[in-house]
Structure to design on (263 residues):
């Protein structure tokens, strides 16, 4: 690991201003991905700005028909929150299946979505529930936030402040996890929202995506049988030592049916 400057910000505003003064700085949330990446010399920022002191970035609250979660709220907090269990139990279940206890107690929702790992769980929740990502500069719709592998719509100096999840009528998340990392080989979030049925898939492709044919079918008949005979194309899906593209394509249908049945 290369030497770097460490700065702990006391607020979100201080974090943004501190990063602006660095030549090549990075925000540090839970550090579950950034620190291992630095140890492997795949990232060499000159400054890390620790968000741990920005208390306004932590918390879960109800705002009308939305559940708002602060960016520095840990996976374990989301998983154990009575507010989340009451409003969107599928989101609590998703958070409880991330990584292991250490990851869940250190990793944060803001860090996860800003990193945009193609196999992460939270992107499926953000897109599947049609959430809004709030930053220090603007609000970004779910369908516009994730761009590509490890790429989002965030500017270099933009900080995720919170994520606002509209409370769905029904929702469930099902994934086929890698047995070692617990990342999603394929994960599917299905939700009945105010904008209709949404089906978001993570783990299968370079970035989270919506299965539009599944959404159309479920819009007319919200049952697992409505997905009989439907599939997603294996073209451009991920292929690695864990699963072929064809296997992942099949898993999308299997996980989608399980998610509908769990709603």
């Amino acid at each position: 690991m290369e030497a770097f400057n460490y700065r702990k910000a006391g607020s979100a505003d201080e974090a943004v201003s501190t990063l602006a003064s660095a030549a090549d700085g990075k925000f540090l949330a839970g550090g579950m991905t950034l620190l291992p990446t630095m140890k492997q010399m795949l990232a060499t920022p000159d400054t890390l700005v620790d968000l741990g002191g920005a208390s306004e970035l932590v918390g879960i609250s109800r705002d009308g028909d939305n559940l708002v979660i602060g960016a520095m709220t840990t996976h374990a907090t989301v998983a154990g929150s009575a507010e989340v269990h009451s409003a969107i139990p599928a989101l609590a279940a998703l958070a409880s299946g991330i990584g292991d206890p250490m990851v869940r107690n250190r990793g944060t929702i803001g860090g996860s979505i800003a990193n945009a790992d193609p196999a992460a769980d939270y992107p499926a929740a953000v897109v599947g529930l049609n959430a809004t990502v709030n930053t220090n500069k603007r609000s970004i719709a779910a369908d516009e936030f994730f761009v590509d592998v490890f790429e989002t719509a965030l500017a270099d100096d933009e900080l995720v402040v919170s994520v606002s999840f509209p409370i769905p009528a029904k929702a469930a998340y099902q994934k086929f996890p890698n047995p070692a990392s617990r990342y999603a080989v394929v994960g599917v979030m299905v939700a009945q929202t105010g904008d209709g049925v949404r089906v978001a898939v993570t783990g299968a492709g370079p970035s989270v995506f919506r299965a539009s044919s599944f959404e159309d079918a479920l819009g007319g008949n919200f049952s697992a049988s409505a997905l009989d005979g439907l599939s997603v194309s294996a073209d451009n899906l991920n292929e690695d030592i864990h699963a072929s593209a064809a296997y992942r394509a099949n898993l999308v249908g299997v996980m989608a049916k399980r998610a509908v049945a769990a709603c």
About this structure: DSSP finds eleven helices and 14 strands in the chain. The longest helix spans residues 245-262. The domain at 5-50 is CATH 3.30.43.10 (Uridine Diphospho-n-acetylenolpyruvylglucosamine Reductase; domain 2).
